Amino acid sequence: MGEGNIFISYRREDSAGYTRAIFDQLAQRFPKNRIFMDVDSIEPGLPFDQVITNAVGRCDVLLAMIGRRWLEPRDGAGPRLNDPKDFVRIEIAAALSRDIRVIPVLLDGAAMPAEDQLPEPLRPLALRNAIEVSNTRFASDVARLADAVGKTIGRSATPASWSRFTSRRPLLYGLGATAVVVVGSAVGLLTRGRPAPVQDGWRFCNKCHAMFFAPAGEGTCAAGGGHVAQGFNFVLTHDVAGPGQMDWRFCNKCHTLFFDGYEGKGVCAAGGAHVAQGFNFVLLHDIAGPGQGYWRFCQKCQSMFFDGYPAKGVCPAGDGHVAAGFNFVLPYA
Ligand SMILES: [Zn+2]
Ligand SMILES: [Zn+2]
Ligand SMILES: [Zn+2]
């Protein structure tokens, strides 16, 4: 996404120690909150493979840590990589298919797997230039790796421009637990010196509890009839590179705000799945403010709803909404 994010793919049994040591070195050179690993601790409640693909998709470079046991079969089964649910396979396949730079990192004398040792979606990995990291030359090897990463993600992530960056606009926060700090105002935040584009008119529906776009009409409410606006007039930033989570869209059928970043498009109160139209909203989450918190993604209908009340509204997928993932903090006029 051009923000200088680094994803580290590794197998715990294979290279947890090396990976942790390399992470610590990289974190001295790149902002820690832009280095992602251990994706299984984030966005609870969402399908694992979608969470991984989503996280990898936000990165510019993926480091595939390959130790001596990387290809090792499980007890009584074939190589883990042959399992489509193997998370290392999902991570690397996602990076390769999205054309994210992939650097194999060969640890402690591990060999680069041959093409025919890899399942189909991972075969292009065998053609990537690898970097070796050994125990005896650890510091210089990791410095070389950091140089390669720095070249890939460009000057935006070097320490010098990073400090300029933090002084001018909010930091990008990491995914879930790794995340962080925000400087500045969410409304009218500066993107390369220009105010970010925003749209107002987004409202809370007091029947279904979803966020909907009132200027487009009452839409279709899961509680029957149209939505009914109450409370704040929310002002949402759209079509910026970050910070925040992108792929929030207006549904032109029910008029709610829904997350369009997954293959499935949720459940629409107007029938079928949501249909995206118009701007691509980029929403801040897990920050102190400004704005109203407790706005959450519903993992059943994929709409944004307000989770600050004991009652969870009416979900088009049945019963109340069920929150998952980030705590969005949405600015209002
Ligand atoms: Zn409603
Ligand atoms: Zn809809
Ligand atoms: Zn819902």
Quickly count the domains.
2
Oligomerization state of this entry?
A: single chain
* Principal-axis shape: elongated
Strand order of the largest sheet: 2-1-3-4-5
Largest β sheet strand count, sense and barrel closure: 5 strands, parallel
CATH architecture of the largest domain: 3-Layer(aba) Sandwich
Q: How much beta, percentage-wise? A: 15-25%
Q: Would you spell out the secondary-structure blueprint of this structure?
A:
Blueprint: E1 6-9, H1 12-29, E2 35-36, H2 48-57, E3 61-66, H3 87-97, E4 101-107, E5 131-133, H4 138-153, H5 159-168, E6 190-191, E7 194-195, E8 198-205, E9 211-213, E10 229-237, E11 245-251, E12 257-259, E13 276-283, E14 292-298, E15 304-306, E16 323-330
Parallel strand pairs: 1-2, 1-3, 3-4, 4-5
Antiparallel strand pairs: 6-7, 8-9, 8-10, 11-12, 11-13, 14-15, 14-16
Helix pairs in contact: 1-4, 2-3
The structure holds zinc ion (ZN) (3 copies).
Residues 251, 253-254, 256, 268, 270, 274 line the site of one zinc ion.
Description:
- This protein is an alpha/beta fold.
- It contains 5 helices and 16 strands.
- It has helices at 12-29, 48-57, 87-97, 138-153, 159-168; strands at 6-9, 35-36, 61-66, 101-107, 131-133, 190-191, 194-195, 198-205, 211-213, 229-237, 245-251, 257-259, 276-283, 292-298, 304-306, 323-330.
- A 5-stranded parallel beta sheet has the order 2-1-3-4-5, with helices on both faces. A 3-stranded antiparallel beta sheet has the order 9-8-10, with no helix packed on it. A 3-stranded antiparallel beta sheet has the order 12-11-13, with no helix packed on it.
- α1 (12-29) packs across α4 (138-153).
- The protein is elongated.
- Residues 155-194 have low confidence and may be disordered.
- Bound molecules: zinc ion (3 copies).
- The site of one zinc ion has 7 residues, from loops.
